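Quick illustration, no need to memorize.
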Amino acid sequence: MSYSLYKVVHLLGVFIILMAMGGAIVLGTAGQEIRSRWKKLAMITHGIGLSLALLGGFGLLARVEIAWVWPGWVFVKTLIWLILGGAVVLALRVPRLSTPLWWGSILLAGIATYLANYQPF
């Protein structure tokens, strides 16, 4: 696949992750009837987004010929991916963390964007 296609796949995955995180955060504070109807969809969507972001991200690394040992910014982006992967569980199980998770997801997405564009280390 081309660099551009990997980039589209990666960004689509990121957008899906953030959409699913927002949905999970709202569901975490919703009533049981709404939760039971939408929880499965939010979790499936989140998993698809994580998979696409990972596939696209590693495809981009291959296209620009970054191999092991990765630069530091790749490790940090992988850590952000792991954090966002686990945060959806917190969003659904700990409603009092809704506001920090909301803003934290946006902050992590901003940090990941900065790292990808400037590759500072």
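The radius of gyration is 15 Å.
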